[in-house]
Design brief:
homotrimer, about 350 residues, alpha/beta, 10-stranded parallel sheet
């Protein structure tokens, strides 16, 4: 199903093998040794393919699927057509992810852009003092500065730029046109195309005579297993560092200002903006286009809804929404109150619509 | 008027010739053969130049213009100074666009960045297995991967990256530092500088033990006549594709998540964010910084106002605003109600301002 | 304190020398000739280092600091521990910025990315007709088009692209992957990584038959001492120019549409969007994620709060917030009124939380 121009499939599996790999219970299964050849969507699956249901919005697609097997949660299993084998799992999305990774292990960590992994291209510009680890790929047009260090098996793709002195750990993927300066990067980090790491933070002493630039003397520290989406920007600290905690996943076009600290395993959706010196605890999640002001703390495990704007500290474990952000229940209440008032006013005027 | 360092003017035209080309009616014209030498603004135009009025905000500029001729709608014609020839058209903006294209045909589809169209630069990195069509330009620093296909007369500008296996149609313009991977691109497509096509969608199976990456096995399909603005990001599908319909125009810094489908001729203004698996019908328009949540449908012909945030399906032909987005009339009503309440409260306290 | 891999410290200074340089008054000083070796944060400072206090949020850190000296405002001086020498200044942030610049003069204007300032790299692609001034640095992978002009001592870093005909003044820094086309740029301008200058503005004559591209025939004019953050986009004018006034500082991921005029010394924080033909006076400041509609004027000295959305002209010297933006006091009042109504409704139902 995945276009072979872009992805390489790695074998077929029996249903039993898949069930064991993801610790799922088999139901409606007539032949535990049936061969599954690929993963795909409910809509397009055929009888030798496996798909999944997570979001209940797609139950109508499930009801019409021709898939040979479906990964599904216990509560939704009754919606599956008879004749479809089920792998029942309390977390079908995760289980399906693991199955996808079995079929397409290369898609878990990209290894090249131009099609030639494992080579140092002659058209790359590598400073003689840079240290290049074993098994490193450097594609055409990539530039690596003086005294930079690239750890084993990392991939520096076409036209990426690694500035002088930067340290890149092992098994990283640095996408096309990503630039990394003034930074120390851990292992198994993915920076997608156009990511900007280490630019000057936005710091000026303002005055009616014009604004004086504050030298930005810190770094960016990116811990292991971080992934950062295309064209996101992570500025370096003014004094002290900007820090991205282990396992944190950042989507596209996100702005992380100087001296921000993100905890471990945060989820930062597209177009979020986090202002200077703000700290997020572990497992914070911020919805699309949400934001925080500077110098505040978002407690561990908190969630800021899409478009929310945190202006003050948020206690750990909270769910906030709105701008300025407030506890979710309060925000929703306010939305309802305003809607009700507008309707009442309409009714009074006898203008219903 | 246009700076000759950047634009090449192509001839002069009689007023009559212009009127015929754009199907406009001439009014206030003493000499239909008067020569028009250039296009420009109302403010700066001289007597051998043509300008236009579309937005009525600029009627004061019209009243003072020294332009030889002005393209204008019937309803605004009476505001023009006597002595200014008029090309009266029901759609003066479109008519003026056509006139601009007559004077500067090269500006309709850029042909180079560095000044050397029609050449394959020796400093480009083209994989030996890539297929390069006739008349293709590849500028310095561009990289084209294994088995990629570039259609006739397309322009791959300086430092752009076309990944392995990508198919680019004919007559395309790929701007500097644009990167295209895992994608099939139609004809006459414009990708401006820094556009990111085909990066991994943002998909993780989250858990308290950390987030498991979902392999992103789909593609990006871009149909004919699409234009995408600088630094916008179009992620590839998870399973299945992300699709941009024919003629759709996307502005700068827009985020299109995995598995989104945009219909034909959509208008997506700067900094919009469209979440995963959402579908827009044909001719949908989304104002600046607006957004949608995932897995919803915005019906054909609908408009989401700037900063609107659609959280549920929007019926075809609707105009929505606000966050969460609701029918425009209802949103405006709510704004008025709140404003009125605040004023009333102020009045009660005797504090007027 | 600053990582020597990325920054070069320039000497030590006596406290007296620093006080004189920044015009501060010394207090609590036992030895005016004490040697200060570096700048750092209150948290991490040792006795030969200087730090500062500006935001009162950090008074607790001040109270525990081991810094040898602190730059501080008169009103906060009493919070400093005894034994810490004080440099008292009415604007401690500005004074500290000057001290940072004394220790790290190279951080005021970056001079390279790859570590080899002052060289024209053999792997740069410079068109033979381009004029390269004295002392210019061009790093590997940079491309400079036909008839472009690069002023003295400017730095074109790795993989940056300067289009045909572009004029870059002297002492500029063009970051990695920045692209500049159709533009005239002044002196001492900083464009950070991935900045996009001069792409086509977003202009289409829309119709049910599809949207007709309006040729974009203007330029971008960037005046002296402008700084533009990573991945921001500045489109060129349609007819006429997009103009960025002297000393204006733009943060990351900002969108400036065609024909916008920014006055001098404006402050444009991350992810702001300014729509076409809007004009900002001098010293306007726009908070993060704020926006304006097109064809309006934001008067000199006005402030739009973070996330504000100006839909109409804003008078000079105003402070506006909200979406649509309104005078700050009115917006805050409306927020309070809605909050109060929701609370009252809750109380009525006896459901307090």
């Amino acid at each position: 199903m995945a276009d072979p121009r872009f992805f390489t499939k790695s074998g077929s599996y029996t249903l039993r093998a898949l069930a064991e790999q993801v610790d799922a219970e088999m139901q409606n299964v007539s032949d535990v040794d049936m061969i599954i050849n690929d993963v795909t969507t409910l809509d397009s699956a055929g009888e030798d393919q496996i798909s999944f249901l997570d979001n209940p919005k797609y139950i109508p697609a499930l009801e019409k699927t021709n898939a040979g097997a479906v990964v599904i949660a216990p509560r939704n299993a009754s919606h599956a057509p008879t004749g479809v084998a089920l792998l029942v799992s309390p977390d079908p999305y995760r289980a399906f992810a693991k199955i996808c990774a079995l079929f397409y292990p290369g898609a878990m960590m990209p290894k090249h852009v131009l099609g030639t992994p494992g080579m140092i291209d002659a058209m790359a510009a590598i400073h003689p003092t840079a240290e290049i680890g074993e098994g490193v790929t450097v594609e055409a047009g990539a530039a690596i500065g003086a005294n930079a260090v690239i750890g084993a098996n990392s991939v520096i793709t076409a036209n990426a730029v690694i500035g002088a002195g930067v340290v890149i750990g092992s098994d990283n993927y640095i996408g096309p046109h990503a630039s990394v300066t003034h930074a120390l990067v851990g292992d198994r980090v993915i920076l997608h195309a156009g990511v900007r790491v280490g630019n000057d933070g936005y710091g000026f002493a303002m005055s009616p005579q014009g604004h004086l630039k504050i030298p930005q003397l810190g770094r960016v520290i990116i811990h292991n297993d971080v992934e950062i989406g295309a064209n996101s920007t992570i500025d370096r600290g003014a004094i002290g560092d900007t820090i991205i905690g282990e396992g944190t996943k950042i989507d596209n076009l996100v702005q992380i200002a100087h001296n921000v600290t993100l905890g471990c395993h945060c989820i930062i959706v597209a177009q979020v903006g986090i202002s200077g010196s703000t700290k997020l605890g572990n497992f914070v999640s911020m919805g699309g286009q949400s934001a925080t002001t500077g110098h505040i703390t978002i407690g561990a495990g908190s969630q800021i809804a899409a478009r929310g704007a945190a202006m003050r500290d948020v206690p750990p474990g909270s769910t906030y929404g709105g701008a300025p952000a407030k506890p979710m229940r309060q925000w929703l209440k306010e939305l309802v109150i305003v809607e009700r008032l507008a309707k009442k006013d309409d009714d009074k005027k006898g203008k219903k619509d």
